[in-house]
């Protein structure tokens, strides 16, 4: 069974809603396959909580913008489409920013300006342009949910590893006995690069093994 | 008003808290594309220029929004201004120097979604820099961005000749290089203190 | 699959209509969210600030903000600058004054709040509000108990003429504290500890003489 799904047009049967959802988890995982939209997020994925919050915030914006773009897709002329998408995305990012402030002052302080940086997350713009502008609302929702979930999973794996090795904790709960020397580097930006590289490596190895079998 | 001196701001933005190596900003288009020193320096120059303009605009917009008591419009106005600035710069470069325009190619429109520019505007606002501090900050950030990009590209060019397992080649290798570089830059910590 | 679309010239009206329509929708959404969350956000912020103030002024349960204008302190409004916070206990007795200060640390700006007792002429409490210091190293300034204990009775007495601090607050090597105005630094976090010392030194030099001169203003606790 071929893994490559390069061009939608080459598939015989039209993808169902579930297909739209699942592709975001593995085959077209935004972080590990498309290598999209990680840049500001790496900075705040140093603990499991931060990574989860950031992932959910991004997924939320992705979902809402996909919905609105899909709803308005026949209404937006193609000349102004990028500008419109950016406006819409910026709106939902602003809303998310205030929502997080209203939920937890501490969380907002840890994430800081990076919440606002979700607006330049290439992933959201690319989904709006590549999918939501050309598909129905329900399909766009599934696309957003799948990509969003794939994104959250990827981010969470980053944050979890960094927190476990770098803080000896998970969600703030200490895991190891006092003698454990934390790998502080994991919490530093360098650790972010290395952890992402490690996960990408694992992903590539799995893909390579599948291709061989 | 922020108390930092101009040299502190510049050093902090360029070396200590490098936008690429400490904040992970501005690498998204770069990671997927193979890097050459030549294109990196051009991209860096373009980004620095846009950063400068964006910084001035952000300062103006922020003051305006405070005056009309509409802080919630900050993100939208920043992103609109940045996008327009890039458009203008693109048209300007096209007219003034078609050769430069062709050399920069795809990079100019890519700058719009460059997290580094928006990041600059947002950080600068959060830190409460005044007008001249903002300009110094933009210059420092742009310099640091260019520096990081050139370094990564240079290392990648050298690594093209190395025998690296296929699974690591490409993005994974770039990330590892960036990580080591980030570690190296940590040596600059404390440089920006009095 | 797709039927051939007829190519029409860009319709200015349609473009303007789209941008304007989206602008209005987005504007509405943002304003609604802003107004809707504002009360809660302000409440959370005020609570966090109060918590910090009570932490740095022991046995305080009420606080009043004061802003420094025209060489004196007056009860502060939200938008005033140069605000400090007076802390009182249940009976309305002044327990101390909390001051927010900031300065460059190792990694980035550190924001702190500390409590000052006019009667004892000492710093009586310390709390880090915001810091991006290196986890495991610089962030010890927030957690290391012996470091935090420095600030239970840090001497910031004034000179005879009450115009300046007699002995500037200084951070010394860990274990080298000889005088009450010195701070025992943390060995693995010298720059961060020194930064804290500098921040407090600068802030007390600026505020303590003024606060002492106007100390009568704070003693009176009026119910709002």
Overview of this protein structure:
The complex is a heterotrimer of chains A (213), B (194) and C (224). With 213 residues, chain A is mostly helical. Chain A has a domain at 36-162. In chain A, 62% of the residues lie in helices and 2% in strands. Chain A has a two-stranded antiparallel sheet. The longest helix of chain A is centred in the C-terminal third of the chain and has 31 residues, at 137-167. With 194 residues, chain B is mainly α. Helix content of chain B is 71%, strand content 0%. In chain B, helix 3 packs across helix 7. The two termini of chain B are 17 Å apart. The mean pLDDT of chain B is 81. With 224 residues, chain C is an alpha+beta fold. Chain C has one domain. Helices cover 37% and strands 25% of the residues of chain C. In chain C, the strands form two sheets. Chain C has a seven-stranded antiparallel beta sheet, sandwiched between helices. Chain C has a two-stranded parallel sheet with strand order 8-9. In chain C, strand 1 (62-69) and strand 2 form a beta hairpin. Chains in contact: A-B, A-C, B-C. Chains A and B meet through helix 2, helix 4 and helix 8 of A and helix 2, helix 4, helix 7 and helix 9 of B.
């Amino acid at each position: 069974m071929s893994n490559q799904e390069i061009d939608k047009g080459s598939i015989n049967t039209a993808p169902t809603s579930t297909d739209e959802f699942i592709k975001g988890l593995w085959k077209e995982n935004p972080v590990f396959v498309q290598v999209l939209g990680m840049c500001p997020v790496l900075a705040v994925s140093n603990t499991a909580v931060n990574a989860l919050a950031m992932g959910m915030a991004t997924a939320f914006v992705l979902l809402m913008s996909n919905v609105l773009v899909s709803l308005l897709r026949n209404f937006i002329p193609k000349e102004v489409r990028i500008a419109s998408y950016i406006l819409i995305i910026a709106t939902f990012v602003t809303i998310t920013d205030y929502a997080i402030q209203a939920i937890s002052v501490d969380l907002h302080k840890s994430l800081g300006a990076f919440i606002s940086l979700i607006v330049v997350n290439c992933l959201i713009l690319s989904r709006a342009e590549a999918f939501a502008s050309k598909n129905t609302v329900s399909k766009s929702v599934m696309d957003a949910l799948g990509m969003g979930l794939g994104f959250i999973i990827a981010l969470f794996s980053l944050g979890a590893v960094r927190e476990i090795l770098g803080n000896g904790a998970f969600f703030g709960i200490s895991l190891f006995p006092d003698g454990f020397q934390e790998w502080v580097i994991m919490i530093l930006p360098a650790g972010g690069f290395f952890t992402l590289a490690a996960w990408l490596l694992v992903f590539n190895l799995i893909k390579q093994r599948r291709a061989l079998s | 008003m922020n108390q930092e001196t101009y040299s502190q701001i510049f050093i902090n933005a360029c070396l200590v808290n490098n936008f690429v190596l400490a904040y992970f900003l501005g690498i998204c288009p770069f990671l997927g594309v193979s890097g050459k020193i030549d294109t990196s320096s051009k991209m860096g120059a373009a980004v620095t220029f846009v950063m400068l303009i964006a910084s001035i605009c952000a300062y103006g917009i922020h003051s305006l929004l405070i005056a009309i008591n509409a802080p919630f419009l900050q993100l939208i106005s920043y992103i609109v201004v940045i996008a327009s600035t890039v458009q203008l710069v693109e048209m300007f470069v096209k007219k003034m120097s078609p050769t430069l325009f062709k050399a920069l190619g795809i990079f100019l429109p890519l700058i719009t979604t460059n997290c580094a520019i928006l990041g600059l505007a947002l950080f600068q606002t959060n830190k409460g820099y005044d007008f001249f501090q903002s300009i110094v900050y933009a210059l420092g950030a742009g310099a640091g961005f260019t520096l990081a990009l050139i370094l990564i590209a240079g290392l990648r060019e050298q690594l093209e000749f190395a025998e690296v397992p296929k699974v690591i080649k490409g993005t994974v290798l770039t990330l590892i290089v960036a990580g080591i570089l980030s570690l190296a830059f940590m040596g600059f910590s404390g440089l920006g203190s009095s | 699959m797709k039927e051939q679309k007829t190519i029409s010239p860009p319709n200015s009206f349609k473009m303007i209509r789209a941008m304007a329509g989206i602008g209005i929708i987005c504007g509405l959404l943002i304003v609604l969210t802003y107004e809707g969350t504002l009360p809660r956000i302000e409440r959370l912020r005020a609570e966090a600030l109060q918590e910090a103030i009570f932490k740095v002024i022991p046995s305080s349960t009420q606080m009043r903000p004061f802003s420094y204008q025209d060489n004196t302190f007056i009860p502060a409004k939200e938008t005033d600058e140069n605000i400090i916070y007076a802390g009182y206990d249940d009976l309305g007795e002044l327990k101390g004054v909390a001051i927010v200060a900031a300065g460059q640390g190792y990694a980035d700006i550190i924001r702190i709040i500390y409590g000052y007792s006019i009667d004892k002429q000492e710093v009586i409490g310390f709390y880090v509000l915001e810091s991006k210091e290196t986890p495991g190293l610089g962030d010890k300034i927030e957690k290391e108990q012996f470091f935090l204990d420095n600030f239970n009775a840090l001497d910031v007495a004034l000179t005879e003429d009450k115009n300046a601090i007699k002995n500037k607050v200084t951070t010394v090597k860990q274990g080298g504290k000889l005088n009450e105005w010195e701070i025992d630094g943390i060995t693995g976090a010298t720059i961060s500890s020194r930064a804290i010392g500098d921040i407090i030194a600068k802030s007390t030099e600026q505020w303590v003489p003024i606060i002492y001169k106007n100390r009568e203003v704070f003693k009176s606790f009026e119910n709002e």
